Amino acid sequence: MAKNRLTPKTRHLARIVLGASIALGGTVVAVPAALADTPGQAPVAAPPVEVSKTAKTSRTPLQVQAERLPKVTAAQVLNIAAKQVGVSENAQGGGTKFQSWYVSSVRAKETVARDGGNVRAYANAPWCAMFVSWVGEQAGIRPTMGWDAYTVAHAQWFKDNKHWGTVAKPGAVVYFDWNGGKRISGIDHVGFVKKDNGDGTISTIEGNTGNGKVEQRVRPKSQVVGYGYPVYSG
After folding, report:
1. Residue 51 belongs to some domain of the structure
2. So where does this one cross the membrane (predicted)?
3. What is the residue range of 136's domain?
4. If phi over 0 gives left and psi between -120 and 50 gives alpha, with beta otherwise, what is residue 93?
């Protein structure tokens, strides 16, 4: 299985495996502005932004959702991700616990219904987004981390929920286009920001790197499309 869709050819093959409905260079997948669903339930429409009557400050739907979740810091999420460093796929591009978890989740059926294909295809599909989703699940904050196997759809989910931006914050979900493009539709890969190095690069923790492993990397910001921001405490 190709790693990270580094070329137009491998990007096209990966999207075929996932049954994605976007062609190269096409438009962004139409993803409803929705909160991550709970097990056994379809995604629900994001509620209106609530406004505090006292502070007069707006909260996003994900911030409202976070009030019902455990208080988790960015450092805790990065610690979970870092403990997976070295986990590797097999010769077929599968065999990781991240893929196995996703195949067995209700979300797999939902994304197949959206993109086409079949659930078993995820078992050997590129797994960078599944890794990010798995970490959110382990941390207990899946509703504000989101879960998906397709990087483009996952990034669009953050944008639709108004948790998308251009600042490299620790714990942010970072999306890459190896060609340096800035369109969500061109995203090739995803991982976590560990820190902004202040020199035009970021340190990251990523699954499904070019070596088919979870690894820590240093990446140039010039390849970053944008960042998704889960809701952290502190």
Report:
1. no
2. none
3. 8-22+57-228
4. left
Model confidence at 23, in pLDDT bands (50, 70, 90)?
A: very low
Q: What is the pLDDT of residues 66-95, one digit of tens each?
A: 999 999 999 999 999 999 999 999 999 999
Judge whether 90 lies within some domain. yes
Cα–Cα separations (whole angstroms), residue 88 to 176, 178, 207, 213, 224? 21, 22, 9, 4, 24
Q: Identify the CA nearest to 141 among candidates 192, 86, 207.
A: 192
Q: At 224, which CATH number? A: 3.90.1720
Asked, for residue 234, whether it belongs to a domain, the answer is no
> Using an 8 Å Cβ cutoff, are 151 and 190 in contact?
yes
pTM over 0.90? The answer is no
* pLDDT classification of 57: cutoffs 50, 70, 90: low
